[in-house]
Write a structure and sequence with these properties.
It contains 5 helices and no strands. By secondary structure, the protein is mainly α. It has one domain: 3-Layer(aba) Sandwich (Rossmann fold), CATH 3.40.50. α2 (27-39) packs antiparallel against α3 (44-59) and α2 runs antiparallel to α4. It is globular, with a radius of gyration of 18 Å. The mean pLDDT is 83.
Length: 118
């Protein structure tokens, strides 16, 4: 049985109004995955989550009017948090500088949070 003739695949095609071809990997998703793995070492799970969320967005299954995803990268200094975000920006937008970086160490007290949220 071919996936193209599968009743579930037909339903998904009808809902998404997109042609599904499981034999062709998504160029955008594959490129993002390759770019991140080339730039960032040792963060396979984080890369997997980023790529999965992006794939969900591209497939049309994410909520319209909402961000593609919200990520909170946590870890000790030097583990690759900023590098991963910059690699995402480079791959998706073409510029690693297309990132707004917020150093949460600056917002340890409640009155300092006003600087962030107004």
């Amino acid at each position: 049985m071919r996936v193209a003739n599968d009743p579930q695949a037909r339903r998904v095609r009808a809902v998404l109004n997109k042609e599904l071809d499981p034999t062709q990997p998504g160029n955008q998703v594959g490129r993002l995955d390759a770019d991140l793995r080339r730039s960032v070492v040792g963060q396979d799970e984080a890369i997997h989550q980023v790529v999965n969320h992006y794939q969900t967005y591209l497939s049309g299954l994410s909520s319209p009017g909402r961000p593609i995803a919200n990520f909170l990268f946590l870890g000790p200094t030097g583990c690759g948090k900023t590098l991963l975000v910059e690699a995402m920006a480079e791959s998706l937008v073409g510029r690693a500088q297309a990132v707004i970086k917020i150093d949460c160490a600056e917002f340890q007290h409640s009155h300092e949070i006003a600087k962030l949220i107004g």
